[in-house]
Amino acid sequence: MYSSASTNKAVLEKYLSIPQGERVQATYIWIDGTGQGIRSKTKTLESKPTKLSDLPIWNYDGSSCYQAEGSNSDTYIHPVKMYPCPFRRGDNLLVLCDAYKYNKEPTLTNKRKACLEVMEKAKEFQPWFGIEQEYTLLDQDGHPFGWPKNGFPGPQGPYYCGVGASRVYGRDVVEAHYRCCLYTGIRISGTNAEVMPAQWEFQVGPTEGIDMGDDLWVARYLLERVAEDFGVVVSFDPKPMKGDWNGAGAHCNYSTKAMRVNGGMEHIEKAIDKLSKNHIRHIKEYDPNEGKDNERRLTGAHETSSIHDFSSGVANRGCSIRIPREVSEQGYGYLEDRRPSSNCDPYSVTMVIVKTTCLEN
Predict the structure, then answer these.
(1) pTM to 2 decimal places
(2) Residue 47 pLDDT more than 90?
């Protein structure tokens, strides 16, 4: 019933090697109305832009992206950041964009505008973030990549950080994605195979303020684009397989300047106290469906806390907030919020953390 839709990329290479002259291809990227889907299209520019203002505002059919009615469908994309394109290379670009409605108001899933305003207000705190993005590779039939078609692999245990064809599936995708992130200048800091087979993680950070959301969304785009070349599907679903299998999260490591110096533990503990008093509020911001997606993952099992309760602890991966052991021993550093789901909007996550810990008494 299902067949691979991948094509022979060796054939494509002979066309990509054709000189393109001085004109440049700019791939505009934006978030659609689901709050988790990524869309893109390409525009030709007469020359390589040197600054954001050189890039024109563009538009697209919002009614085909769950963002507008067909009778009033023009939706506008405003460039906010440029990255070199690892697929076309040369002077070609990836352009991350904000989406706006016909009345110049941000679309409902444009969380970046509000996040940027919060980060500007909190600039004196120098908030740093590092997000651990988990995801699952699937065949085009929706079955986990490398899993037996009529059964299941062996129980969890040998797959985390595993090596060997019987333990890890899809490493080519991971390696290609890693190199693309390095090429674009995204601060990717590592990657590893995860607890469930066909599940992987990459980490982005540390980055400051709005850069966390920008880099993670573009890193997700790169992952989807790379997997497309391999004919593999990427799932950011927080619980892609029912049963005794780990879910997927986007653990957010966070610190302010005061947390990163001697005596910082006092500030970490104050932040955790504030987070404990806003648990429900954060849960609603930690997946695009106000906690409904995360409810399947945050059960208190499989290295998660319960979605209904707040908890914290040193080196405890079953807590809402984990304080790494080395942070506890040295008395400064950062905290890890383990609640965000793999399909979270990093703008929403970083924004609510800064609001709660820096801007509100």
Answers:
(1) 0.96
(2) yes
